[in-house]
Design goal:
Length: about 150
């Protein structure tokens, strides 16, 4: 489990969903509030890692690509994070969890296909865990994902 990725999910949850640019801005504001000097160019990499590991998932809100907390996240608001909604002028966004779960299932299924073709056991094991988390997180079934990953793990 990654505390940093859980904190990204916690920041996103404060608003319902954020664009990548808004999340990067939130990270910059938080660093300033905490008195930390950070390399803002690293934010995109941190966000991308959280998306890759299903801590954050991408969806659509009013035609805009947004990030929401994902199925493996245990959202945690970082120190001073509760101030972000007062600092940033970002609308609260409610996301359709059903649609988001379906998009995430599609992505998981596609990634499982790739992993099955390459035989990456470590990633297959991780995705297997994600499949169970996703079913608990949203109203989707992921049996076909597990069926595709099982031969890689045997």
């Amino acid at each position: 489990m990654s505390r940093t990725k859980d904190e990204l999910a916690g920041i996103v949850d404060l608003f319902g969903a954020l664009t990548r640019a808004e999340l990067a801005r939130a990270l910059a504001e938080l660093a300033f509030k905490q008195g930390k000097e950070v390399d803002e160019s690293a934010f995109e990499s941190v966000i991308a890692d959280a998306v890759d590991d299903y801590y954050l998932v991408e969806g659509n809100y009013d035609g805009e690509s947004v990030l929401a907390s994902g199925p493996v996240a245990f959202p945690a608001v970082p120190e001073n994070g509760e101030d972000l909604p007062h600092i940033m002028d970002v609308p609260d966004r409610g996301v359709d969890r059903t649609a988001l779960a379906e998009c995430t299932r599609t992505r998981l299924r596609e990634e499982a296909e790739t992993v099955a073709e390459t035989g990456d056991e470590e990633r297959a094991g991780y995705l297997l865990d994600v499949s169970y988390d996703l079913e608990a997180w949203g109203p989707v079934e992921t049996d076909e994902v597990r069926e595709r990953l099982d031969p890689v793990l045997d």
